[in-house]
Amino acid sequence: MVRVVAVLVLLGLQGCGLAAAPCRLGSAVVKIFPYIGHVAAAPTDACAAAIDP
């Protein structure tokens, strides 16, 4: 069961999605903070958008 889930996750992160994962993860972490999170996450969102449009 664990292998099936791991394969499905890896299939979703093929190609550019895998390269953009650190940017997307960083953006999600920064967006946790109220008021300033979305503004502070703009550069990481732009990074992810540039890598994986």
Quick recap of the structure?
It contains four helices and no strands. It is mainly α and 53 residues long. It has one domain (2-51).
Walk me through the structure.
The chain is an all-alpha fold. The chain has one domain (2-51). Helices cover 75% and strands 0% of the residues. The model has no long low-confidence stretch (mean pLDDT 78).
Secondary-structure element series: HHHH
Please give the domain count. 1
Query: Count of DSSP E strands?
Result: 0
Average pLDDT level? 78
How can the largest sheet be summarized? none
Top keywords for this entry?
53 residues; mainly alpha; 4 helices; 75% helix
Write the layout of secondary structure elements.
Blueprint: H1 2-12, H2 16-30, H3 37-40, H4 42-51
